[in-house]
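Input set for joint prediction.
Command: fold jointly, output C-alpha cells.
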Amino acid sequence: KAGVTQTPRYLIKTRGQQVTLSCSPISGHRSVSWYQQTPGQGLQFLFEYFSETQRNKGNFPGRFSGRQFSNSRSEMNVSTLELGDSALYLCASSLATFGGNTEAFFGQGTRLTVV
Amino acid sequence: GQSLEQPSEVTAVEGAIVQINCTYQTSGFYGLSWYQQHDGGAPTFLSYNGLDGLEETGRFSSFLSRSDSYGYLLLQELQMKDSASYFCAVLDDKIIFGKGTRLHILP
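C-alpha cells >
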C-alpha cells in the first residue's frame, strides 16, 4: 500500500510570507501528526489531527496551524514566516490506538527554507 | 514538563555492540518506542516496549524499566548501514521524541 506522501518536498519562501504544506496519510489511518525537525533539536511535536479534529498541540506559536479533511489528508500552514522556521517538516500517520503500540509512519518531509 | 534524554552521539566499531540509553520524564506513559533515521530519510519504526523487560528483533533489542523511567536500544553485530540517528519516543496521548543519538560506526 502507498506510504505517507508529503508535498512539496522542497520549498523556499521569503520572510513574512505564508506557506501551506500537505500530507496524505496511509489509507485507513485517521491520525496525522506534524513535527518540526531542526539540527540538534530532534523532532518537535506541532499538532495531531484525528477525524478532522485537533487532538493535541505542541508549544508552537499561533502562526503554526493545521487542519484535516474528511479523507484524512492534512495541511499545515505557517503564516508570517521567520528565518527560524527553516526546518524539515515531517508528517506521520498512525492508526492512533494509543494505549498500545502505536507505530507512526513518516513521510519524507518538506524541507522549508526561509530567506 | 516533558523531557527525554539520550546521548547526542555514540561511536562504535563495525561488528561490535552498542547501547543507546534513554531516560524520560513525561506526564503520561503508555510505552517507549525507538526510531531510526538515515541522513536525508524519514524516521522508521524499530521497536516498542509497553511492559518492563527486553524485546528482541533480530540484531536489535530494546529494554524498558518503567520504575526507573529508563530504556535502551541495543544494537549487535554492527554494520556500516547502521550509521544513522536513533530516537527514543514516549507514547503519551501523543508521540514525544527525544533529540536523537547520532551513531557513528568505524570500520
